[in-house]
Design goal:
The chain is an alpha/beta fold. The protein contains 9 helices and 6 strands.
């Protein structure tokens, strides 16, 4: 008797929380400054599921044009897809991870505002289970993304969407601050934090801090980058350029401290000149 090999049955989902694979939102039109923002949105959505009992999130690097761009120490910028991932990619990722659901999305930005789509798919079949979009001004983008994520959780079943709040998805409530911070990260990655690009990165992260002084990651990058640049500067002109790059008001603690550090460095350099 000839035995016919049947295809392998689909893997049995593991016991415990259901896994959700999140692909970073595809971007249209092309905006290189939003590549990292798109990745951060995907990362935030995936991370937020940890707050919901019964769910786990995983942000898939297969949403990237160049997954190697995320390697630590890499100087290559993050590049995300310009279109939704192919269903075959979603199926392969879902099956390899034994995931239950997958989330894809699209982010469209123009002069008028932002439109965001999120889609919930069966991670194994690729079937579309739920889709929603919102059109908002940039001031409300992150809040509406949070609302979409809550909608996804409702579509998944008996979970508690109210456990997902803005701080569980994003490190800041300001879209413009997030964009400025992402730009600073890209510039630091390209330059190592020094030279003219290092100063441009400092300028960008300074704006993020001015827009949201409680944006902790931006504040840390602002402080670290500012101290590094001041330590490297060898003349007053460079220090004055850094001081001019600081956005916001001195009432913000981190900005006030950086202005004082720049002032102290200028005094130290002036003293050194007189002593020679």
């Amino acid at each position: 008797m000839t035995r016919v090999n049947s295809p392998d049955p689909p893997p049995t989902p593991p016991e415990g929380p259901k896994l959700v694979v999140v692909f970073p939102p595809a971007l249209w039109p092309y905006r290189s400054s939003l590549d990292r923002v798109s990745w951060m949105i995907g990362q935030g959505i995936a991370t937020s599921f940890v707050q919901v009992p019964g769910l786990l999130g995983y942000v898939s690097p297969r949403g990237l044009v160049d997954p190697g761009a995320l390697d630590p120490g890499s100087s290559r910028p993050v590049k995300v897809l310009r279109s939704l991932p192919e269903l075959q990619t979603v199926r392969e990722e879902g099956r390899s991870l034994q995931a239950t659901w997958a989330i894809t999305g699209r982010l469209l930005v123009d002069a008028k505002g932002v439109e965001i789509w999120l889609n919930l798919l069966d991670a194994r079949s690729g079937d579309l289970l739920w889709t929603r979009s919102v059109q908002v001004t940039r001031e409300r983008v992150l809040w509406r993304v949070m609302g979409l994520v809550r909608g996804v959780v409702v579509a998944m079943g008996p979970y508690v969407p109210d456990l997902i709040t803005l701080p569980t998805v994003f490190p800041t409530g300001s879209w413009e601050a997030l964009v400025s911070y992402a730009r600073a990260l890209d510039l630091v990655g390209a330059s190592g934090g020094g030279g003219e690009q290092g100063l441009d990165a400092f300028r960008a992260v300074s704006r993020a801090v001015a827009l949201d002084p409680r944006f902790d990651a931006a504040v840390r990058l602002f402080q670290d980058l500012g101290r590094r640049l001041l330590a490297e500067f060898t003349n007053e002109e460079e220090c004055n350029r850094l001081r001019s790059a600081i956005a916001g008001m001195s009432e913000i603690g981190a900005i006030r401290e950086m202005l004082q550090l720049a002032h102290n460095r200028i005094l130290a350099l002036a003293k050194g000149v007189r002593e020679t």
